[in-house]
Amino acid sequence: MNIWGRILQWARWEVCITAPRRDRCVICVAPHTSNLDFFLGLAAYRSLGRKANFLMKEFWFFFPLKYLLTSLGGIPVPRKRTGVSLTDKITEMFKSDSYINLAVTPEGTRSANSRWHTGFLYIASGAGVPVQLGIIDYRDRRIIIKDEFVPTGDIENDLSEVKAYYARWKNSARYPEQFEL
After folding, report:
1. What is the rounded CA–CA span in Å between residue 134 and residue 92?
2. SS3 category, 37
3. Any idea what DSSP says for residue 131?
4. How many other CB atoms sit within 10 Å of the CB of residue 25?
5. What's this model's pTM, rounded to 2 decimal places?
6. Which of 60, 81, 116, 150 is the most exposed place for a label (fewest CB within 10 A)?
């Protein structure tokens, strides 16, 4: 067991990741109601010897923190829109890199938000990769990734199916009142 697994074991968290190990996939993580979600997800994935990239507000990529975040797999999300969309840029990364597991929180915030971002579905569909469905279950102290979803390209319908999957996990959020579908 590596240091990540020992930290989780010490904190009495269980890693329940049974989805197939993939070289390329998107990992959708919900509910996302606490900053602690990031550390738990990172530790769980690293405890299995896997590395995941993640999207984070560009604000956090300042010296010297940017070096740590980048080494952990962080991809800054710019506040201002530039010529190339971030979704297109990441879809191209999937096409050119042999290994990329991208963790995203479609809520985009830790506050209650029923308008989920759909970029993760566009990325997975455009790159032809599955979406693994991850849960940080505070109620039972488990980090779970067991199911996969293959996007059809019908983003509205795909998002409805993903939200339906997460509906049963509402009370597993650290702050259930902040999780909206």
Report:
1. 23
2. helix
3. E
4. 23
5. 0.91
6. 81
